[in-house]
Design a protein that fits this description.
GMP Synthetase, Chain A, domain 3; 3 helices; three-stranded mixed beta sheet; 3 strands; alpha+beta; 25% strand
């Protein structure tokens, strides 16, 4: 899952070397934290959050078999 988020984010930004994905897991959920260069935050979020929502939708769809809720936070 981390690789999926990282791959998509690196394709969107101008500074792909600054893309970092970390995860926190508990018994009910997994939270992925996406960190990008400050100049690239707008590119990852997109107009009215459309790119961020699309990224979250892809991650949620790929995590349906895990049985846990998945969250994606963007910094």
């Amino acid at each position: 899952m981390k690789e999926l988020i990282e791959t998509v984010a690196k394709a969107l930004v101008d500074h792909p070397e600054d893309v970092r994905v970390s995860s926190k897991e508990n018994e009910r959920s997994i939270t992925f934290q996406l960190n990008v260069h400050p100049d690239d935050v707008g590119k990852v979020i997109g107009k009215q959050g459309r790119i961020a929502n699309a990224l979250r939708t892809v991650v949620y769809a790929s995590a349906t078999k895990g049985g846990k809720k998945v969250y994606v936070d963007i910094d």
